[in-house]
């Protein structure tokens, strides 16, 4: 991509992008257009030859399709160092493996894991993310700051919500602790987090003096029934005090839903609503097992759902009803989930899977999600979930200049028919040529300008080798727990429920050949 006086190296206030084709989703066309930027903001969009102030930096976007930076509505930066660790993991087995995956993390590891994910996302056309990061036994200002620095050093935007809980997974699932032999009951005490008041103090400390500009804070009570009511109320009150978002895994798996009904006598969404957490700054992660009443409740409150179709299938949680959500006026964003349970951070793939997930749920093609709806969810919808919908998610005057440049000479774009269909169904990230965030080129000619990838790989390998030894005892504990959790939780998931989100009406009638 030809750039004269690249904005990454200049303080000139104006930049003009010339010669590119701008995605027009409403007309389903790629329209020749020039874009004038003032600093990091889009000032004007016009026909080719748009006047620019004298001395403006010129970017040649010939043979490029320009679309808004994709926005990842749900990921977990700690998962990037756990990429490829597991295969047959349900959500409950993944939670059981948390110590194995996360053991031995230093401050540098937390930075490194976030940097790996940010690098992948930006290289694949994603310019902002909602990151639910976890630290054990409680979040720290130092850890959150390390993650924020990683995003800022890459050049990416993020909303960072520390995942917090005060009830262990084994205590949160009714009957599970009783199934563990006494020796294992004692060993899983190591999963116990800090008391909720200590965690709340740490979060308040971070919120009170957060120094980062492109990375904002939110709160992530991880799963409702993993949090005491007192802790959920404390999260609600902190979010109000500091005017930040709330993000929680709600009805991700059927096990969660069954546990919620047993514990509260109502759905998880209804319980959180009763406590006052459901509002326009509240995001449900996954929402696979939301029913119609839950969706109406979220829609009435102006809440969002981060739809993660890849992870939902990867962990065997089922097929979320995105059409039902949209029909109930729920704001829907698209996410990848973490790399330890969804394997990559590719928002193009997440969009494709969101489209396909809707199309395998029945023959009524009029209910299927259109590519235009998917693209809107992955840009404007996700931006709204992040609380950044007035800044990003569109290429329009007044919005931040977060622009992806796709190579129209790449085989993915030969021929160029309907660009909206092609972005969702054809593009896989390999045609991403350049990426601009806030008027600054972060990726140029397929090269990430802010990270030495060879050095990143070397640091990741050093971390992997060191932590492999440290995590060996936690891995052995997981292997012992797997036999109990991997039997008990699927049994709980076979309890009768008034909705079904699995890909089969009676899943797994025959034993799996790899079952213990």
Describe this structure in words.
The chain is an alpha/beta fold. It has two domains: 3-68 and 399-448, Urease, subunit C, domain 1; 70-386, Metal-dependent hydrolases (TIM Barrel, Alpha-Beta Barrel). The protein contains 19 helices and 19 strands. Strands 1, 2, 3, 4, 5, 6, 16, 17, 18 and 19 form a ten-stranded mixed sheet that branches. Strands 7, 8, 9, 10 and 11 form a five-stranded parallel sheet that branches. It starts with a strand and ends in a 24-residue tail after the last helix. Mean pLDDT is 95; it is low at 4-10.
Give Rg in angstroms.
Answer: 23 Å
> CATH H-level name of the largest domain... which superfamily?
Metal-dependent hydrolases
Strand content: 15-25%
Poorly predicted runs of 5 or more residues? 4-10
CATH fold field value of the largest domain: TIM Barrel
| Percentage of residues in helical conformation | 25-40%
Query: Between the first and last Cα atoms, what is the distance in angstroms?
Result: 55 Å
Please supply descriptive tags for the structure shown above.
5-stranded parallel sheet, Urease, subunit C, domain 1, alpha/beta, 516 residues, TIM Barrel
Summarize the structure.
By secondary structure, the protein is α/β, with parallel strands linked by helices.
List the helices and strands and how they pair.
Blueprint: E1 3-4, E2 14-24, E3 29-38, E4 41-46, E5 57-60, E6 64-68, E7 70-75, H1 91-96, H2 98-102, H3 107-123, E8 126-134, H4 141-154, E9 157-164, H5 169-172, H6 176-179, H7 182-187, H8 196-208, E10 215-217, E11 220-221, H9 229-242, E12 246-250, H10 254-264, H11 268-274, E13 282-286, H12 292-301, E14 304-307, H13 309-314, H14 322-327, E15 331-334, H15 347-359, H16 371-386, E16 403-407, H17 419-425, E17 432-437, E18 440-444, E19 447-448, H18 453-470, H19 472-492
Parallel strand pairs: 2-5, 2-6, 7-8, 8-9, 9-10, 9-11, 12-13, 13-14, 14-15
Antiparallel strand pairs: 1-5, 2-3, 3-4, 6-16, 16-17, 17-18, 18-19
Helix pairs in contact: 3-4, 3-18, 8-9, 15-16, 16-17
